[in-house]
Structure formats: structure tokens, C-alpha cells
Amino acid sequence: MSGGVKSYAAVDLGASSGRVMVGRVGPDTLELTEAHRFPNRPVRVPEGLRWDILGLYAGVLDGLRAAGRVDSVGIDSWAVDHGLLDADGALLGNPVHYRDARTEGVAEQVWATVPPAELYAATGLQYAPFNTLYQLVAARSRPQFARARRLLLVPDLLTYWLTGEQGTELTNASTTQLIDPRTRTWAYGVAERLGIDLTLFPPLRQPGDPAGLLRPEVLEETGLTGPVPVTAVGSHDTASAVAAVPAGGERFAYICTGTWSLAGLELDAPVLTEESRAANFTNELGLDGTVRFLRNIMGLWLLQECQRAWGEPDVEVLLREAAGAPALRSVVDAGDEAFLAPGRMPERIAEACRASGQPVPSGRGEITRCILDSLALAHRRAVREAQRLADHPVDVVYVVGGGTRNALLCQLTADACGLPVVAGATEAAALGNVLVQARAHGLAGDLAALRGLLARTQPLTRYTPRGGTGPWREAAARLAAR
């Protein structure tokens, strides 16, 4: 392409929708446009909750057709879920959804063999009932599992259908709870003790590795002219998002914001202490030998559910109302599992405030302010604890993802942390996906160079802390005393 600019298709799959984005990349160019968006609707069938993987694959093909000529394709998605293939490479049923009930009570079975402290010391992964490890233990007594000869995580399954080649991308594999984050390969001891056959997984791939060429049938269906390579990217969407943090050389924390907030540090080595496990921090693998040391926080889900209950009012109107409401009057624990399920969110937030002896917020503005103050407080706690647990101080917090559009939340996060916040890279996962492809296909530079390109080309907003952190310490103490 002219001027050294090339185009890359980023397939970015979320839990409720997927899209194909086209990134144009050159020495001083980084532009992203949406080619196609399609729904991702899980289906409840008699045997449980399943992903419509065929519908997703059709959406990917439609998106590649809409994208037109590209120099490479990369796929990222949510973590842990997978498809099982038989000896002929055929899919054995739709992949099970991570919210399916089959893993209920399975963790206790696993811990009877490998206690939680030993499991964390070996894999560094926080407890989540839907981790692939627990899914496999739940599935192994099923007839379908007995027929399985291969397991492919969702991005790897779609890559296989596009190319005919199989692999296991490392950043996503690190969410299975079957990877040793120190060696960056399989945790063989854990798998052996639990009777998990690691030969189900094809060989590990690194972000940037070639993953094959689009099959002739795919070229025909999409109208593309071959050869079109598929490139392994950070196929766990958070790995791609963290790769797109537009940081310089400074010591930084990051918060990937959206329905969930993922707050933490980029490290050179995992933190596998018992204190880290008790604080529910996870060690997932990132680009170029890095570790994503982070905690999951409920995120903007709380506000999204309130919007749904209020008839979908414009979020900018809610933020203006919240800006005029009293600060830190009432706060809730944004990580409380009581807020995980949908429905009645305004009432549940009010109930939580009442139960903790705080003033009960009334009206949309006060409830929205309570949510944003509570999220900023959770961000503060995660950033402070990550620094302490990793002995890794930071000077700035980068916010990427959908929450960058929420100026009030970004400012409150700066106030709570007592650190400057730089917000940008709204489409972080797709940008990280595109940049890894571009580097693999001739864009010179290491991770720092890719981030430098982001910083030069993406709009960034800096928020300076206002006032002291005393009111935030007092609010944290109120929550801790519950």
C-alpha cells in the first residue's frame, strides 16, 4: 500500500457482540474503523447455556467480506471457553458458556486434590468458578468429552476454521488455570494430579506467530484475494487491551474499563504469594514476556443496569446530574457479588447503603454518583494493593476502553488514587490486536515503540488529582467497617 501503510482486520469478540475492525498502520499512522458488527446471543437449550459459535463464525466471514483487502487477520475474544473436536477435527457441539451451571461445586472437588494455596502458587490465577480447569473437571464424565481429541479456545477454534491449522495462543491459555506463569508453559504437575490430559491442547503459540493462511473456501466466501495470513495476537481481549496502553517509560498502572474494570500492573514476573491470593489478584500472561497482575472489579455494569431500569436515559444527562450530587455521601463495595446478577440495580444499591448505615441515595443523580464514587474507590484500592503486593510503585494511571468516555469517572479515579490519570485508546482491544499484527508483518519496534505510536496518534486526556485523598481514605474506612 502507498506510503508504507497497511491494513489489518481485527476480529474482536465480546460476550454480547462481535465486530470486525480495520486498522490502517504506518510509521506515523494508526486509524481504526468498524467494518461490521454482529450480535453474540448465547442460547439456553435443554442441556444448558451454550454459545452460538456458528453464528459468530458467520459474523466473522461477513465482517471479512465487508473489510475488503487486508494484509492480515487476527482474532481476540473473552477467555476460558472452548470447543471440543473429535478425531476427524469436527466440532462436538456448541461450546459451553462460562455462566453455565455445570461448574457449581466443582471447585471444592478440585481443592480436595490440589488445595487453593497450592493451585495459586502453581498457576497464579485468581479463583473464578468458570476457569477452564473447573470446566474440564466438570466435563470429563460426559460422553462427549470421552470422544474429544482436541480442545481449542474460542479464538483458536475460529482461527482453525479460517485456516485449517491448530494452535493454543499463550495469553488466552494463561486464563485456563493450567499454565505456569514462571515458565510460560503448561503446569504439568497440576494437570497430572487432576487427571487432565494436556495433549488435548495443540502446541502453544506466541502473539505475533503465524497461524496459517485463509483457506480457499474462505477466500471464495469473503471475496478476498489470497494469500491472506492469519496472525496470532493477544487473543485474550484483555491482553490486547493492555498492549494498547499508550504508556511511555514511566511506572504506570492501568485500568481496562467497560462492563468490568480490570485494574493492575504490567510486571516482568508473577506475584505468587499467599497474600496476593488472599487479595484475589491474578497473574495472566501478556506480550513480550510480561505479566498482567490485576484484579477484576464489577465496572460500569452497575450503571448499565441502572440505565436499563430507568428506561435507557442518555448517559451524559446522568453524568451531569451526578456531578451536582454530594461527593462520597454513600459508597458500596463495587466488587460485591451481590451486584453480579441483573435486575433491580437501583434498589439493590439503595439497600446496600441502608444496610451499612449510610444515607440512602434517592433519584438518578445521587445513585449514579454513588456508583461512580464506589468505582473510583475500588480503582484506588486495586491500584494501591497491586503496588504493595508487587513492591512496584507507580506515577500515573492509564485508563483504556469504554470508560475513557466517562470524564467524571476518570476525574474521580485521579482524585481517589492521588495520581494523574491519562485516558485514551477507547478501542483498546482492537488497537492492540491490530498493532501485534502490524509488528509481525514488518512494523519495526518493540512494545514500547508500539505504545509510542499509540501515544502519537490517539487522542489522550489527562486528569490531575483535585484536593487531598483524605475523604477517600474515610470512605474506604466506612466500607471496611461494614
Strands, helices and their partners?
Elements: E1 6-13, E2 17-26, E3 29-39, E4 43-45, E5 48-50, H1 53-67, E6 72-76, E7 82-85, H2 106-113, H3 116-123, H4 132-139, H5 143-147, E8 150-153, H6 154-163, E9 168-169, H7 170-173, E10 179-180, E11 185-186, H8 188-194, E12 204-205, E13 210-213, H9 216-222, E14 229-231, H10 237-243, E15 252-257, E16 261-267, H11 274-278, E17 282-285, E18 291-297, H12 301-309, H13 315-323, H14 345-355, H15 363-390, E19 396-401, H16 407-417, E20 421-423, H17 428-440, H18 447-457, E21 461-463, H19 470-480
Parallel strand pairs: 1-6, 9-12, 15-19, 19-20
Antiparallel strand pairs: 1-2, 2-3, 4-5, 7-8, 10-11, 13-14, 15-16, 16-18, 17-18, 20-21
Helix pairs in contact: 10-17, 13-15, 15-16
Overview of the molecule:
With 482 residues, the protein is α+β, with helices and mostly antiparallel strands. It is 39% helix and 21% strand. The protein is built from 19 helices and 21 strands. A 7-stranded mixed β-sheet has the order 17-18-16-15-19-20-21, sandwiched between helices. Strands 3-2-1-6 form a 4-stranded mixed β-sheet, sandwiched between helices. A hairpin with a 2-residue loop joins strand 2 (17-26) and strand 3 (29-39). Helix 10 crosses helix 17, helix 13 (315-323) packs across helix 15 (363-390) and helix 15 crosses helix 16 (407-417). The radius of gyration is 22 Å and the shape is globular. The mean pLDDT is 95.
